[in-house]
Amino acid sequence: MLWPMLALALAFCGIAVLAVLSVRVHAEVRRLAKQVSDSSQRITRAAEDLERASAPLGSTVDALRRE
Questions:
Q1: How far apart are CA 66 and CA 59, in angstroms?
Q2: Which tens digit of pLDDT belongs to each residue from 39-61?
Q3: What is the pLDDT of residues 3-21, one digit of tens each?
Q4: What pLDDT does 13 receive?
Q5: This prediction's pTM
Q6: Closest Cα partner for 9 from 54, 17, 42, 47?
Q7: Alpha helices in 1-67 (DSSP H)
């Protein structure tokens, strides 16, 4: 009777460890997803800023080509 109880206790401990690790992985995935989202927004803003900054340059180059 001792061995089945010991096996059951070890199985429960193993499942408990897996549950704790899965909660930690879930938390890290959520943190990583937030960082990716923030980075994506920053890249989008930088691309828009670059577009706005290059518009006057494009019109200047176009005016020089026409001359």
A1: 11
A2: 999 999 999 999 988 877 767 76
A3: 999 999 999 999 999 999 9
A4: 98
A5: 0.65
A6: 17
A7: 2-66
Residue 62: HSE in the Cβ half-sphere, 13 Å Cα cutoff: 6
Amino acid present at 43:
I
- Quick check: helix, strand or coil at residue 67? coil
Tell me which amino acid residue 51 is: E
* Tokens linked to 20: 């704790």
* Dist CA 45 CA 17 (whole Å): 42
Spatial distance between the Cα atoms of 44 and 66, rounded to a whole number of angstroms: 33
> Phi and psi (nearest 5°) for 40?
-65, -40
In our burial notation (b when 16+ CB lie closer than 10 A, e otherwise), range 26-46 reads: eeeeeeeeeeeeeeeeeeeee
